[in-house]
Amino acid sequence: MHHDVIDGVPVIWTETPGPLEATLMFGCGVQDETFRTLGVTHLVEHLAMSTLPRLHFEHNASVSLSITDFTCTGRPEQVVDFLARVCTALTELPLERIEKEAGVLAAEGSGVADPVTGELLSIRYGTQGLGLASFGGPGADRIPLDAVRETVARHFHAGNAVLALTGPPPQGLRLPLPPGARTARAPHPAPRRTDPSWHRADVPGPGLLLSCDLNDQAMLLATHVLSQRLTDTVRHEHGLSYDVGGTAVYVGPGRGERSVQLDVREGQEKRVAELLWQEALRLAEEEPTEAELAEERQAAREFLTDPRTLDMEVAERAADLLLDETHLDAATKLAQQAEVTPAQVREAFAAAMETALLLVPHQVEQLTLGRPDRSALPAADCSERTALPAGPQYRPPLLARARFGAARKVRLVVNADGAWWQDEEGQVHGFPYTEVVGVEVHDGGRILHGLGNCFVPVTPELFAGLGPALAAIDTAVPETLRYPLSTLRATG
């Protein structure tokens, strides 16, 4: 692996088969946004790419939770031209195209994580940082112009960039970015949920989230063993699922999250969730066999020694440099895995299970499961309240209460401290004004979004006589957090 510096940008490269691939990375992503500015990094990326002419070689750009990258594959002169154009565009963004590119973003509708992992991250961290993975935010057409300018100035400069190449830097390569110091990322917000619990959401299948060190090879082997056991049990033995997937999410140096998720045959959501939890508990209590570890070590060896993975290796090294993470090359990973014992695998997984979040599709109304210590695994909601606080109460319109029995249970309280509502199932949701991250302004109503992955609908469709409640909300919540309903979607 070779290291160079071009125009203040570190360049990491190695010789690989095939055409030259380039990945220009910036240390920013969705986790650096807020709910109010959600999508701003993706909008910057689209604005920059919109300046490019029609190109007859492979190229793309993407935004993840922690990194924004611009990639291309082609002849050396094509790579040189692409990178120069991208860097120039980032310093001269066509801000007059914001409205059009906002529409393109709405049509694209892409996310930064699969639905299950995104929802689990939101449960773990709330509506901030990594927890923003499952949210759409106010809408691309509601991103403040100042947020676009601030994002470019803060993140898109030479000090916050790394270039990965699958060959030596081609002649004439320039990276005309403004100078800058490495962006000092604020410490990631502390998790809001760290104890084992289970949750329901509108997701296609169940999933499990575990906090760990992503470089811990014992934990990596543990998740691979779990995935294979689930494949054997849920797919091959019971025929309830097709795919078992896994995702690794970077949190900070030495910190991360690993998820395991399954798709599921319709009507079998509860059973698959139970099998997932059952297999996870078994791995936390019983050591895997030597044969299981040998199988996973062989799979890792086949993958990491394949010459076709060299492009992944150079990109991974560049990302680790950008994120100040310790990099383990393929040889080091394999050497460490060879030393891992079955006892270490069980111990690493058992420690991670102390942070386990189990997510199930909303069709699953009840689960009876035990934690690793044999106590009951609790169900958790966005609010820990069991009753509405004191304050002015608002009820659904009289006609709704007369026609629908469930509407008679619904209540809203908006007081001097915050807003809470009780749904038709009797569950209480809400938060103080200090935890408001955004307020969608409807004609005659408001929808409040809170830090704890929760929302409160204060709308005339649901509640009558809202004048005093709306006045209280507008007085308490800063104007910078309020925004009109996006024109790019039908509902907020």
Tally the beta strands. 19
Spatial sequence of strands, sheet with the most strands: 1-2-6-3-5-4
Strand content: 15-25%
Number of contiguous helices: 13
For the terminal residues, how far apart are their CA atoms? 48 Å
Globally, the shape reads flat
Structural class: alpha+beta
Q: How much helix is in the residues? A: 25-40%
Low-pLDDT residue intervals, each spanning 5 or more residues: none
Largest sheet: 6 strands, mixed
Radius of gyration, in angstroms, nearest whole number: 25 Å
Overall pLDDT: 93
Structural overview:
This protein is of the alpha+beta class and 492 residues long. Helix content is 33%, strand content 21%. It is built from 13 helices and 19 strands. The protein has helices spanning 40-49, 76-91, 98-108, 115-125, 145-155, 217-237, 269-285, 290-304, 310-323, 330-339, 342-353, 398-403, 467-476, and strands spanning 2-6, 9-13, 20-26, 58-63, 68-74, 161-165, 197-201, 207-212, 244-252, 255-262, 357-361, 393-394, 411-414, 418-422, 428-432, 436-442, 445-450, 454-458, 482-484. A six-stranded mixed β-sheet has the order 1-2-6-3-5-4, sandwiched between helices. A five-stranded mixed β-sheet has the order 7-11-8-10-9, with helices on both faces. β17 (445-450) and β18 (454-458) form a beta hairpin. α1 (40-49) crosses α2 (76-91) and α7 (269-285) crosses α11 (342-353).
